[in-house]
Amino acid sequence: MGKATGFLEFERKEPGYRDKDERLKDYRAVENMPDEDDIYDQAARCMDCGIPFCHDYGCPLLNVIPEFNDRVYHGDWACALDILLSTSSFPEFTGRICPAPCEEACVDNLNGDPVTIRQIELAIIEKAFEKGLMKPQPPAFYHDKKVAVIGAGPAGLAAAMMINRAGYRVTVYDEADKPGGLLRYGIPDFKLEKNVVERRIRLMEEEGIVFEQNVQVGTDISIRYLTKHFDAVCLTCGARKPRDLDVPGRNLTGIFFAMDFLTQQNKRISGEPITPSTEINAAGKTVVVIGGGDTGSDCIGTSLRQGATKVIQLEIMPKPPETPSEATPWPLWPNKLRESHAHKEGGTRRWSVNTTACIGENGVLKKIRCEEVAWSNTDGRMTFAPVPGSEFEIETDMVLLAMGFTGPGNEALIEGFGLDTDARGNVKVDGRMMTSVPGIFAGGDMSHGQSLVVTAIHSGKQTARGIIERLSGDTEK
Length: 477
Ligand code: FAD
What we know:
This protein is of the alpha/beta class. It is 35% helix and 17% strand. It contains 20 helices and 16 strands. The chain has a five-stranded parallel beta sheet, sandwiched between helices. It has a five-stranded parallel beta sheet with strand order 6-14-7-8-9. Strands 10, 11, 12 and 13 form a four-stranded antiparallel beta sheet that branches. Strand 8, helix 17 and strand 9 form a beta-alpha-beta unit. It is globular, with a radius of gyration of 23 Å. The model has no long low-confidence stretch (mean pLDDT 96). The site of flavin-adenine dinucleotide (FAD) has 39 residues, from helix 11, helix 16, helix 19 and helix 20.
């Protein structure tokens, strides 16, 4: 694949990020686009490794990575595109924001640096858009059966695209103003500019998919309406129930869920209205972000751009090791310390910190009380205990809760359809992604919990496959 000796000749080279001081002044994408001259050498680094762990172990979509690398190295961009699109629904999204488990599983990563797979993927799809190769692919004809997809996030979009191309008319219903789910209203523009989402939605509309926005299923249209008018329903409503902070003082003014904060900023950028009374803004404030994951990191980048004077991120889990822990050897996704571009922009991070109270004056947040915790492994279960005498306080005007999500929420919809759920509240599905109610399917975060865009796309495709098999009567494959 690529050039047999490429990995010996060329070093890994990334396009890098815009200058920190410059990028903090705007919300535009922070990562530079791959340089075409470099991409050929980078694709050449893909070695003939026998078992491509990147493809069958690293990538949930089973992207045929060595083959598209080979075509890029030979300058055959059209063929590289065909190979990429044979598995990947939206490479323009994953090429920008996927954490790239494929690169962790790359054989080059064993003794050196992995191939820049994500950036090669991005180069292929962006060249295709630039050259006008991304044309709508409507089906040759439509069957007489119709499908309703509820939720226009990456899972719903992937399902809708596949079902429509198989010749079933698709209407996508979504309660938000515009389609995209977390791609549009969660992930900040500095990671994914929204014109990239809009470009794809336009293409899908040209393929024949109908988007009905501002429609909350269960309220604006009934479940009975859906089951009467559609031959199958695909539920891809995400997992949006945020984990709350159960401590005294939680109700003080100045404590917000991360998603409310991030959604507002994305809306501001795209000119969508925000009720002034609910405005959340970090300008001039000391912000504490509780939660050390990606959502927390997005809160840091957004707070700094809004003009926060100080940002502190607190994580209850212990600090991960600088190099992959022995418990997660190659090709597993490694447990190791990660530093996002937002972390490099400013703020401080602390680990093994538990927040025990929020303290205010006249109903307004003034500070939080914290303690350090020590973690231990008891019978395979990680538990923590406060470190005696470690209590401390942080003066703050604003706390953002970014502690993950506890389930799909959407109780009325789930109960309305009469769907079974698992212990975590996720919608239960069988091997064909069908729920406990025949004809109703579910995928994405709604069925497997908060995850990644690439996992949601994979799940959306699996759901589409289940629906197509049911509608075509072909359930034997
Ligand atoms: P969602 O994207 O949540 O979409 C669900 C859709 O359903 C929404 O549009 C919603 O409006 C609609 N809906 C819900 N209920 C109803 C209803 N009753 N009626 C009508 N419509 C309804 N992953 C990555 O890979 N890389 C990242 O960098 C990354 N960053 C992230 C940053 C943040 C802040 C968050 C929160 C997540 C991030 N993720 C990231 C995770 C990723 O965004 C999600 O896993 C993915 O979007 C899930 O896709 P989905 O289609 O299942 O759900």
